[in-house]
Design goal:
Blueprint: E1 3-7, E2 10-12, E3 18-25, E4 33-39, E5 46-51, E6 58-60, E7 68-73, E8 78-83, E9 92-99, E10 113-114, E11 118-122
Length: 124
């Protein structure tokens, strides 16, 4: 059974940092390109960052570029998202997803697997 389990979320003050993890079981992580998405209350789920299966290529949306960094450790079957200089508008449930084709990373319906999410709240 395939599982993606996110962890590392929580409550943090503006300007603070968090590191999210997504641990995979039941699949070989290097077979998939991986992404982090987020969904704020009352809004649609949006792509935050993606990383190619061997970690050579990454992409980050403009709103997080320079503050967030996506990375992966295939030996540990784990995906990461380092989030720095957090803002209240970063508050959301963060999800990791696994997709087979890099060109499909923008298409939510193309993802093969999803985690259940971890809540990030940025507030003073």
């Amino acid at each position: 059974q395939v599982q993606l389990v996110e962890s590392g979320g929580g409550l943090v003050q503006p300007g603070g940092s968090l590191r999210l993890s997504c641990t995979a079981s039941g699949l070989i992580l290097k077979d998939f390109h991986m992404s982090w998405f987020r969904q704020a209350q009352g809004k649609e789920r949006e792509l935050v960052a993606s990383i190619e299966n061997y970690g050579i290529g990454t992409s980050h949306v403009a709103s997080v570029r320079g503050r967030f960094v996506i990375s992966r450790d295939n030996a540990k079957n784990t995906l990461y998202l380092q989030m720095n200089s957090l803002k209240p508008e970063d508050s959301a449930v963060y999800y990791c997803g696994a997709v087979r084709r890099w060109s499909d990373r923008l298409i939510m319906n193309a993802y093969d697997y999803w985690g259940l999410g971890t809540q990030v709240t940025v507030s003073s």
